[in-house]
Every structure is written in structure tokens, then in C-alpha cells.
Amino acid sequence: MHTIKLRDKEYPILFDLNVMKEVQDRYKDIGGIAALGEKLRDFGEMAWIISLLISEGAEYQAYLTNGTAKKITAQQAGMLLTMGDFNSGKISQAVVDAFNESLGDSGNVTAEDLTTVANLMQTAPEAN
Questions:
Q1: Cα(120)–Cα(115) distance, rounded to whole angstroms?
Q2: What b/e sequence results for 11-39 when a residue is b if at least 16 CB atoms lie within 10 Å of its CB, and e otherwise?
Q3: What's the whole-model pTM score?
């Protein structure tokens, strides 16, 4: 499982089917998972995505250890995130790394790939 370091603390992040469902439900209008690339540039959405990945990572660790998960909210994630995190590309890379881990051996997606797919899905005519 990947981790992300925010304000000098490591947090587990996990991109699994539960996260995929949440992302798909939230962005269904522009293609679910493919919308992630575009959302990696929006501060509020990034805080939501990071809170989701950290909370799922915490849930998984708690499951493995029979412990209690420390979930975080998007508000709390926003508190932990800095402009330096965004400007360095650390946040988008952490999301992409976690996503690729969920794909297994076929995982080799970049943030640019996600953005390209999202843009194509936005301009594609609706199927009847």
C-alpha cells in the first residue's frame, strides 16, 4: 500500500473498488474514474479525493490489525495539504501511484492519461 507524507506525517492511501465506486458516483456525469485527471487540479476536489484515499487506507490497516480506523474528512485533508504539495506534483503522483497499484501488473497510468481520457469523454457524443 502506498503512503503520502503530509505535514511531516505518513498516511496510508488505498485506491480500491470502494474508492472507485465513490469516485464514479461523484463524477458520473463525465466518466467516473477518468474524471480524476481533471480533478487533480481542483483544490476542493483534491482534498475530497485525498480524504477518501487516506480513510480507505486507514480502514484497510485497521482490518488487517483488528484495530480502529482513523478516517479523515475533506476539511481535515484540506488542513493537511499545502500549496507546496500541489506545486510539487506530490499529490497527483500519490493518487496516480495508488490508482496504478489497484490495476496490478497492468498499472502504468499517468495523471496526463487520466486528463486525456476525461477530456475525450466530455467531448464524445452521448450514446443512444
A1: 9
A2: bbbbbbeebeebbeeebeeebbbbbbbbb
A3: 0.78
pLDDT in tens, 8-49: 999 999 999 898 888 888 877 545 565 666 666 678 888 998
**Cβ atoms of 91 and 39 closer than 8 Å:** no
Would you state the cell numbers that stand for residue 70, as one nine-digit string?
482513523
Best CA proximity match to 8, nearest among 87, 84, 99, 59: 84
Distance between CA atoms of residues 60 and 55, nearest Å = 9
Identify the residue whose cell numbers are 486507514.
Answer: 58
pLDDT digits (tens, 9 = 90+) for 49-78: 899 999 999 999 999 999 999 999 999 999
